[in-house]
Design brief:
There is one protein chain. By secondary structure, this protein is mostly helical. It has a single domain, classed as Peroxidase, domain 1. It contains 13 helices and 6 strands. A two-stranded antiparallel sheet has the order 1-4. Strands 2-3 form a two-stranded antiparallel ribbon. Strands 5-6 form a two-stranded antiparallel sheet. A hairpin with a 2-residue loop joins β2 (37-40) and β3. One of its GO terms (molecular function) is metal ion binding.
Length: 343
């Protein structure tokens, strides 16, 4: 049984080609709050302002572009947030898990589902140094939102001001994230005891307080990235979409970072609704990856209405995806500034 990784791998579209608004137009109505000091591993840091978060976000757009790493930073943020358990919602921070930055510490980074995510942390370290008042939990979630937008997806309405987990002692136990199989290769229940892919997804995501619609919308982010056999044990070593002159970016430009792996979509560095079309199509190119947890979003009666809608209507997918992504990014959060900061 292999772990299923949220969107993996690299490269995003040039900021100019996507027509990003200048920093001066990134916000409509920033939320302001009194400047306070908050604890960090190195002592105290000042709570970031809306302008600092805005500058950090622009920096992330540029940094992720240069490093060719949009999918892996999405995966980093999701795996940090995905440890939340709604049954522990009343427990003190950070015992409930969630988007608290604990994945940056070795005990959690060493979890099997997090293989390769140290790369993403190293890519974000220079950004953290340039924006020291932005905490790690916020930095990860901002990078994820930037990765979606930079590859052609929607701008996600995000809040910032998360409290960071303080140290390795705050890391959750292993086993919170979803698994998957190549169709036809499942020989028994999932490790959590669930018998089918749909049951497994529901057990994992309903534990977080997410709905069937959230599960399907978030699954659509597999339009980005690749599965690597040396990380998840899933997929092919390489495909025609991940070798040589492959051009997976939305603008058709060459370049995609590390070669190899197997993507879910042909343009695996373009955020759109093509994942749903590919999973639905029985004649899709056989070099594209289809896991049992992918196919079940069309096979399960509860998931199917959402997947069919997103296959046929990209705007509907974007609208629902924004809600689900933002919801995931706030799981288990304790705000340093009440209500968070927007820009």
């Amino acid at each position: 049984m292999a772990r299923l990784f949220f969107a993996t791998s690299s490269v995003l579209l040039l900021q100019a080609a996507l027509g990003f608004m200048p920093a001066s137009k990134l916000a409509l109505a920033p939320r302001t709050a009194a400047r306070t000091s908050v604890p960090s591993r190195s002592g105290l840091r000042m709570a970031a302002t809306a302008e600092e978060y805005k500058a950090c976000y622009v920096d992330l757009l540029e940094t992720v572009n240069k490093a060719n790493c949009a999918p892996i930073v999405v995966r980093l943020a999701w795996h940090d947030a995905g440890t939340f358990n709604k049954a522990n919602a009343d427990k003190p921070f950070p015992d409930r898990g969630g988007a608290n930055g604990s994945i940056r510490f070795d005990p959690e980074l060493a979890h099997g589902a997090n293989a390769g995510l140290g790369i993403a942390l190293k890519l974000l370290e220079p950004v953290k140094k340039r924006h020291p008042n932005v905490g790690w939990a916020d930095l990860m979630q901002a990078a994820s939102a930037a990765g979606i937008e930079a590859t052609g997806g929607p701008r996600i309405p995000m809040r910032y001001g998360r409290k960071d987990a303080a140290g390795p002692e705050d890391c959750p136990k292993e086993g919170n994230l979803p698994g998957a199989n190549i169709p036809g290769q499942q020989t028994g229940p999932f490790p959590d005891g669930t018998p089918t892919p749909a049951d497994h997804l529901r057990k994992v995501f309903h534990r977080m307080g997410l709905s069937d619609q959230d599960i399907v919308a978030l699954s659509g982010a597999h339009t980005l990235g690749r599965a690597y056999k040396d990380r998840s044990g899933l997929g092919k070593e390489s495909t025609k979409f991940t070798e040589g002159d492959a051009a997976p970016r939305g603008d058709g430009a060459k370049g995609y970072g590390r070669k190899g792996g197997q993507p879910w979509t042909e343009k695996w560095l373009k955020f759109d609704n093509s994942y749903f079309a590919t999973m639905y199509d029985p004649n899709a190119d056989p070099e594209l990856l289809k896991l049992d947890t992918d196919l079940c979003i069309f096979g399960d009666e509860g998931f199917r209405p959402h997947s069919m809608k997103y296959k046929d209507d990209q705007d509907a997918f974007y609208k629902d995806y924004c809600v689900s992504h933002a919801k995931l990014s706030e799981l288990g959060v304790e705000w340093e500034v009440p209500g968070g900061v927007t820009f």
